[in-house]
Amino acid sequence: MDRWELAHGRTGANAPSWLTFEVHRPYLDGADSPLTTVHARGSLLAARRFEQRDPTAPRFGMTMPGSYRSLLDEESRLVPYRVVDPTGLDPALASPTWLRMSSAFAERSGLDDVDRAGLAQWLLATCLPRAVLDVVPADLSEEECADPVRAVGQWTRASALFAVEGLSDRTRAAYSPLVENPASTVAHAQACAAWGYLVTRHAADDSVAPAHFARAEEILKGLELPDFDHSLLRARLLLRQVMHAERQEAFDHAWRLLDEAADLAQSPTNADEEALAIEMRRRIADRRVDIAVRRGDTAAEDIWIAEALALDPYDVKARMQAAQAVERRGDTETALAGYLETARLGPFGTAFALLAAVRCASALGHDEFARVLAERAHRTAPRSARTREALAELSDPALADMVRQPVERGFEHNWHYRMYGAYFNLGVSQSPCLYASLPTWAFEFADAGAPPEVNWQRLMPPAFRANLVRESGLVEFAVRHPADLPASLRTPAWDRLCAWIDEFPHADAERQYLTAVVLFRLGFGALVLDLLPARPIDQSMTVAELRLWHWRDVVRYVGSIGSPSVAEPTASFEIADHPACPTHLRFVISVFAVVYHARETKSLEAAELWRSKAQESLDLLLTGDSYSPFEKAMMESRFYRSVTYVPFLRRDRAQLEREMDRAEELARAVPFQSPYEEFLARENLRACLESRSKEAFGFGEHERGRRLVEEVLAIDPYEPKTHMELAEVLLAEGREREAGESYLRTARLGPIGTARGYALAGECFDRAGVPLLAEDCFVQALRVDPHAVSAARGWARVATGTLAAVAGEYARDLEAWGAARRAR
Q1: For the residues 286-314, what does the mean pLDDT come to?
Q2: What domain of life does the UniProt record list for this protein's source (predicted)?
């Protein structure tokens, strides 16, 4: 499987989707992987037991709670693998094992008791507990449970109910026929031991637990079992008793129980027994570490952490234990590395590991890195008060206030939705970034039925909405048409937009224009072109129609940027020369044409021609009485900022500086009165100073360029692109560490430039001698863009932990894949 293809278009919450898939693969498609953690292999054994028609034979002792699959879905964001029963997975994605079990589930009503019990055990091991209740839909009586096979089905039902509901009345009722008057079967022995453990861990009163453990022991003594099976079940009983001893704070007794469990280990005689033995040893090592910590025995703690990691290098719990151990000893940097590695191997405990990493990063002075980690912790557990407060505490006041705002619907917890809600469903964008609410402005003018004479200049790239949805993981918003958005995700404004689209074919040109502007601002440029099929411009047109068709041309042009053939806005050029074209529209198009030719055709002659037309139009607009001082100042400032492409093409530095001075002078002095005018003034000044910074750097005036970039950031500290520009300035000054932090801000405030920001931050931290931060940044770049070969090379270069070999393999395979594609 090509890892980058599996993850393409799917952005994991904290780790690359392919990595989460491989570590937890049996839960997702029923197959194994070299990276699969031990507990995930329980379903592989359960499937073999089903094939062997042997439901009473031992299977793995550890099953995951029902919440585990939800976390796996939410963090991997591998939407095609989201299922509630095995038949929900597309057969093209399923392994042969999954297909066999899916077929059995589909035919469950006709299964005999053996296959029913075996299927139920596989479903439980695959963390599909609700599906177990479809296979074993009702409790059996004590008499029915006397049958060893049917008892297995009842115990699996009881286990599934606990996974879904905890110690509910239904769970208690399901355990009752197995533990009140237990028969002499393997299922009854295991159920009694399990019930004692559950009571110990989850009930207010655990005084009955020893009696249940004693019953389990008596049953085991009377069973005729192979030596391996008997020793395994006895060790599991002892392991459950450890929990009770721990709760009684009898830690020395707990340690003796663990010694006894370890001494019971039998030599496995086949592959299935080997898998069971490894799982048992891993569980014993886990509890050894926990009890060693409670006893203050650091030497034993080290021994058993090493044992656990040797048995399962991809286990989250073992990685967490190792990181906690070194942090307690004051080795904060090693602890940070451990917590980051733990978080990559999630999902269980990802946010917890990231919060611990935040603590370590802050202690080491990696403040910006700590903010990024806090944002990722909040992203993986957005409903958690702890992650919310951690992020708020590390954020500036504006973002902290955003994080703490109450929400009404689940998706509103999402970091990206909070930032850019307007782009998702015309909700509220809480980010202070200037462009965060562009769709809101467009909608409000459309709702009022009157477009502004002066609009903002920022044209978001067509991929912005797609990237936003992909990086947020809110795939329900990935629709091609607003009407496709589910009702549960809509706002009243969205419903109004859908009504305008329904009325579009019969609406007048003004309403069509207003609707088309909103659609483009939301990222539905292709829909605008579908709603407005091309037509000849030389036909008689009204002013409203001319504006509409110019807008269509802008949408067409912007949508083609970055493609092999950029669409020439010929319709707009024709409109500017149309007899009915008003002066202001001619001015707008002429300025647009100067920029187009300067960027795309590099034709000085064409740029000069359109500059002359723009100048003529501007002169008429400035001498007339139709526009306010604000509008005139905005028009003139934008004019000079745009038409200076002409002296730039001529290499006329004096004229370029003179005219840019005028653009800046006007931008700083523009007299705004309303909130909208203030927004336009800030946006214009920001754009003007951004252009001036490029001018300064182009002329080698580094210090001046730096001051201008800093001023641009002061106007809008939440614009990711400007943080990237500041990073480039810092990099040119040899300040790699600070440049890396600025690139991190780009990534945190994305989605524009998220993957690139992480990759460049990784390069900077690597040069600055902070490989730990560099590795994390490279992994995050690959999380967002699995095809980023430079990030893959960077990861392979700096990786030193458990995944170092995987990093090298990923880079080699990705380069080979790319070379093969180029050759084809």
Answers
A1: 97
A2: Bacteria
